[in-house]
């Protein structure tokens, strides 16, 4: 990304800014619109939301004072863009089909919508910035391959923890270090059985939905994010659900090392997380057996070894997302993307006793939580990917902490996500 600031300045001077559309104007989406309003060389002419008032609000919060057209008509939207106006719409296809648009950001958080948005982007050759990690861990490999075949970029976002971790990981690998572990600090207490009712007051105090907060507290978001890292790097969970020890920054190299070195790991090359003062940082722990490099690392206060910490003390979430959009257009590169097949799976685990006939709700709600497992073990156990769980109907009773499997549920056959997943499973098995 050399001179990315200069390249954006040049585009601004030429009157050819990167044109981005945003699907989903929630908390993260509003941050993106506000950040782009402060930038040069990039604009967001289209914002999509279920309620156009929310889309218009995103522009106003950002400080945009020009005219915002509300329409669900493609031609009217394209005309407005050419006239320098902004568009608020409920029709996500406009965000993809509008000719001037170069990049589409999916900030919906819905795996099903992520699949539909991505397929349309591929058909219309628009770069995809996938903030929807829940979709990525379910069908990311096939979407990434289809995007490459279409000559466009499919990318996870900078600033989200997977993107931030992978940036440090790529740095370490480029230098030839061996990666022992990669991970993040968890920023909420862990309660595997939390539900939105438990967190209503805390969520209101933080100006976020109780469902979103619950996805963090019950551990699902951490499992999903680290599965995305695993699928992009080939690093694996050391144990199902990862270790998640209580530790601080200064402890990381001593905790995330092999057991024969005094740590908790059975093997090297893993993803994990810690609960302590690590948040909002991310880390990659590396090692080398080269005496000269070891001497240099010690002299530069990286520790006494055998493991050394590469630590990024922040991740700015959606505030960094415009960098990924610019990177796609200017360099044809992703911030992060899955490899050709899944390394890890996020499996579905019951948070309470469930009855036959129940319809499973969404991630961060009442029925289930996510846990990470290797894709091979999950496949052998017929374990249900968490991205496919919403709307599934149980065929049998399920006990608290029991893993929900494919044969326990009836899935929605009209789901684009499900059809893509079946194709992915056949192609990459």
From TrEMBL:
This is SAF domain-containing protein. SUPFAM superfamilies: NAD(P)-binding Rossmann-fold domains. It holds the Pfam family NAD_binding_3. It comes from the Bacteria. Residues 345-410 form the SAF domain. SMART domains: SAF. Gene3D superfamilies: NAD(P)-binding Rossmann-like Domain. It comes from Defluviitalea saccharophila.
């Amino acid at each position: 990304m050399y001179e990315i600031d200069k390249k954006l300045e040049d585009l601004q001077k030429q009157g050819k800014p990167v044109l981005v559309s945003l699907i989903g104007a929630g908390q993260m989406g509003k941050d993106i619109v506000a950040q782009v309003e402060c930038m040069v060389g990039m604009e967001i002419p289209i914002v999509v939301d279920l309620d156009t008032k929310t889309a218009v609000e995103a522009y106003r919060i950002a400080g945009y004072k020009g005219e915002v057209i509300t329409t669900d008509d493609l031609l009217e939207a394209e005309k407005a863009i050419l006239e320098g106006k902004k568009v608020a719409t409920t029709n996500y296809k406009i965000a993809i089909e509008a000719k001037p648009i170069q990049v589409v950001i999916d900030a919906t958080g819905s795996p099903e919508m992520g699949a539909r948005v991505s397929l349309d982007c591929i058909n219309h050759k628009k770069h995809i910035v996938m903030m929807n990690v829940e979709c990525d861990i379910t069908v990311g490999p096939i979407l990434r391959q289809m995007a490459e075949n279409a000559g466009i970029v499919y990318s996870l976002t900078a600033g989200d923890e997977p993107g931030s971790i992978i940036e440090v990981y790529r740095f370490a690998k480029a230098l030839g270090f061996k990666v022992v572990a990669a991970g993040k600090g968890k920023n909420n207490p862990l309660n595997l059985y939390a539900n939105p009712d438990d967190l209503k007051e805390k969520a209101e105090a933080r100006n976020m939905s109780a469902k979103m907060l619950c996805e963090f507290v019950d551990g699902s978001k951490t499992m999903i994010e680290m599965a995305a890292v695993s699928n992009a790097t080939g690093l694996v969970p050391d144990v199902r659900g990862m270790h998640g020890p209580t530790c601080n920054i200064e402890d990381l190299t001593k905790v995330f090392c092999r057991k024969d070195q005094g740590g908790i790991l059975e093997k090297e090359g893993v993803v994990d997380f810690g609960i302590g003062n690590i948040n909002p940082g991310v880390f990659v722990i590396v090692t080398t057996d080269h005496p000269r490099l070891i001497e240099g690392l010690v002299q530069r206060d990286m520790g006494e070894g055998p493991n050394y910490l590469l630590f990024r003390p922040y991740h700015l979430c959606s505030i960094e997302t415009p960098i990924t959009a610019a990177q796609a257009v200017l360099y044809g590169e992703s911030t992060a993307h899955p490899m050709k097949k899944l390394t890890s799976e996020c499996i579905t685990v019951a948070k309470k006793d469930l009855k036959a006939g129940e319809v499973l709700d969404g991630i961060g709600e009442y029925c289930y939580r996510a846990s990470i497992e290797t894709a091979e073990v999950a496949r052998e156990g017929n374990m249900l990917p968490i991205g496919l769980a919403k709307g599934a109907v149980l065929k049998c009773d399920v006990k608290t902490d029991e893993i929900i499997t494919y044969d326990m549920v009836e899935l929605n056959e009209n789901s684009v996500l499900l059809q893509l997943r079946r194709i992915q499973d056949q192609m990459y098995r």
